[in-house]
Amino acid sequence: MIRRIVGIETEFGITSVGGEGARSLGPDEIARYLFRPVVERWRSSNVFLENGSRLYLDVGSHPEYATAECDGLRQLVAHDRAGERIVDELAQHAEQSLAAEGIDAKVYLFKNNTDTVGNSYGCHENYLLDRSTQVRSIATTLLPFLVSRQLICGAGKILPGTPPGSASGTPTTPGGGRDDETRGPAFCFSQRAEHMWDGVSSATTRSRPLINTRDEPHADSTRFRRMHVIVGDSNMIETTTLLKVASTRLVIEMLEAGIALRPMAVAHPVRAIREISRDLTGSRPIGLTDGTTMSALEIQREFLAAVHRYLDAGGWARDDRPDVERCVALWERVLDAIETGDHDSIAADIDWAAKLRLFRQVQAKTGVNLDHPRLAQIDLTYHDIRPGRGLHSVLERRGLVSRVVDDAEVERARRTAPETTRAALRGRFITAATEAERDFTVDWVHLKVADGTLPTVALTDPFAHVDPRVDDLIAALGR
């Protein structure tokens, strides 16, 4: 049985709202309050936690949470949701600290990808590959999938208006076709699509590619590579997260296995990802390098058909096969919904469709246009991670969006590392060193006691969840 390691890194948007007469707090100041308990405990704002995850303050005052290494799809969804609870707990603590100092302010954390002034922050996916895999070769075939993947896992966003005659023009009412003469705002599939500037690159911020090729496996570099995908949206609905990761993992495995695909190399990936995002019909022709065209729907259906062939031939023979089959069925249902325009039929499962339904409901009641502040507020508060306050949270509590895991699984992931990957060893060491009151240093690979009295252990195999060296290290902590 082949196992795979996957992980998600999420950067959260941050802001605060003060009471009447309260002074304004900037992102840097809010972040300091947010990370105060982390710094007090660990003397750093870049730490690994007992559940094997990494939590740190990224550039731009964005809290970032990277899940522990997961080798199961449900496991990954649970650990991704655990990250929301961990950073929200910090936000609640920050509000208490502010109140204790006489500052009336509420802290808001958003699991989205854009702010109100046009900045973008990422949600990165990591897929462990065999060292023999040629990343650039696979990336060429993977790009058409990633360019069009927003149809099945985009988070949705209202774009501002575009000038008449622009190729990016779209209708002012959600769900329609392309109109090059439109000035008004439009609903699109993806938040990240407008902020990607390259197809494949070793950079992450300067050119912001769909696929980052920097060779940084965080493991034995003679055995492993890491596929770093940075084009995806942050997702709120668990089934959207599941579909995003499962579909991509399936396509990567299929390409590694040499499954034949129709040539679909996109001529201009950056232009294509924007054009696809703005066309909710999925039918706009996208130019390919051979001079032909395909629509986003056609590209996705080609990949889906290949995945069916791969699974029928015995691919993904693992314990979570039922989760994969659930994803493939949802994948097909989403493409059918886009083709027929029946977006409400997938609103419980896919973020962009859930958000679009909310917009349409408000528009039907009030008659407001997409540029109305009320819809902008819905667009943002859908991603508020505070339970009972964020719109997704409200929908989830009412049973209006689908789930993959239950609250007990999320709570367990918040406290405990995955038991089937090396994250279990990292989590055990952090817990033991903390209880022994020993200073230590941890990264994705290394476990080290700070005073140098004990040997550093390098965990170069991401699949090794049992290691006598770690047992010996932990036993020696209390001596």
Describe this structure in a few short sentences.
The chain has 479 residues and is of the alpha+beta class. It has 14 helices and 17 strands.
Topology:
Elements: E1 6-11, E2 13-18, H1 27-42, E3 46-48, E4 54-58, E5 62-66, H2 73-100, E6 105-110, E7 123-130, H3 135-148, H4 150-153, E8 157-159, E9 186-188, E10 198-201, E11 209-212, E12 224-229, H5 238-256, H6 269-277, E13 286-287, E14 293-294, H7 296-312, H8 321-340, H9 351-366, H10 373-381, H11 391-397, H12 407-415, H13 423-435, E15 440-442, E16 446-449, E17 457-458, H14 468-476
Parallel strand pairs: 10-11
Antiparallel strand pairs: 1-5, 1-7, 2-6, 3-4, 4-5, 7-12, 8-9, 11-12, 13-14, 15-16, 16-17
Helix pairs in contact: 1-2, 2-5, 2-12, 3-5, 3-6, 3-7, 5-8, 7-8
Give me some keywords for this one.
15% strand; alpha+beta; single chain; three-stranded antiparallel sheet; 17 strands; 14 helices; eight-stranded mixed sheet
Describe this structure in words.
With 479 residues, the protein is α+β, with helices and mostly antiparallel strands. Among the domains are: 136-191 and 236-381, no CATH class; 422-476, no CATH class. It is 40% helix and 15% strand. The chain contains 14 helices and 17 strands. It has an eight-stranded mixed beta sheet. A hairpin with a 3-residue loop joins strand 4 (54-58) and strand 5. Helix 1 packs across helix 2, helix 2 (73-100) packs across helix 12 and helix 3 (135-148) runs parallel beside helix 6. The radius of gyration is 23 Å and the shape is globular. The two termini are 40 Å apart. Residues 165-182 have low confidence and may be disordered.
